[in-house]
Amino acid sequence: MTQKPLGDRVVLREIEAKEEVIRNIIIPDSAKTDDTKHAIVEAVGPGIYTQSGVLIPMSVAVGDEVIIPPYHQGTEIKVDGQKYILLRESDILMIV
After folding, report:
1. Where are the domains of the chain?
2. Hey, which of 11, 15, 18, 71 has its CA 20 to 30 A from 32?
């Protein structure tokens, strides 16, 4: 990806949850109760500046797998036919 987000924004590519097998029984994604989404960080902005002009760098890096809320406040974008999610770093719940 050649595009670079501004400020504290992150570009994510959502990844599919893997099927879980318990004692030879496949648990489909539709039966799981976990509503969070997994994504891979594709691009990050430089960070955000404080009022005093100090740059606070990003905590995530390209290639990190992260968990985001199911109903995030991000923006879905399409670049070269691929869907991405653009959201602020503060909306990311955790790095896996």
Report:
1. 9-95
2. 11
Output the six-digit token pair for 73.
């406040």
Closest of 82, 80, 79 to residue 15, by C-alpha:
82
The yes-or-no verdict on residue 83 having pLDDT over 60 is yes
Q: Does 81 have pLDDT greater than 70?
A: yes
Task: Identify the CATH homologous superfamily for domain 9-95.
Answer: GroES chaperonin (2.30.33.40)
Structure tokens at 26: 């496949």
Measured distance CA(21)–CA(40) in Å, rounded: 23
Q: Give pLDDT, residue 59.
A: 94
Q: How far apart are CA 90 and CA 58, in angstroms?
A: 10
Q: Rounded to an integer, what distance in angstroms lies between the CA atom of residue 32 and that of residue 34? A: 6
Q: How far apart are CA 4 and CA 9, in angstroms?
A: 9
pLDDT one-digit tens code per residue, 21-66: 556 666 565 555 567 789 999 999 999 999 999 999 999 999 999 9
